Amino acid sequence: MTDDDADFPPGDGPTSGISVTLTAGTLQAIRERVGKRGVSAYLEKAAQRQIERDNLDELIADFDKVHGPADPEAVAAKRARLTGGATNAGAAA
After folding, report:
1. How many angstroms separate the Cα of 9 from the Cα of each of 44, 52, 80?
2. Is 39 helix (H, G, I), strand (E, B) or coil?
3. Which of 56, 36, 55, 34 is nearest to 45 (CA)?
4. Which of 12, 52, 66, 87 is most buried, most CB within 10 Å of its CB?
5. What is the pLDDT of residues 51-62, one digit of tens each?
6. Which residues contact 79 (CB under 8 A, 6 or more apart)?
7. pTM, whole model, 2 decimals?
8. Distance between CA 17 and CA 11 in Å, rounded?
9. Alpha helices in the chain (DSSP H)
């Protein structure tokens, strides 16, 4: 079994080199943050965060199919409780 056949979760397994194309401005911004030698690690972490967000979006969509969308006023009230702020029912959840 080769590494390509193995099933690794995001962030696990051996490293593998690929070619990635970025706009000059994006690459410049990354290098300003992490230097030339930190680009791969930065992109790895960014990809992992995006995978987490995609998985969360899928879970929310599945939940919404079963239970319907969340009540915006209830979300705002719970957000206010968590953050200690005033409710803002008109804000996007």
Report:
1. 13, 11, 35
2. helix
3. 34
4. 87
5. 999 999 999 999
6. 85, 87, 88, 93
7. 0.70
8. 14
9. 24-34, 39-67, 72-83
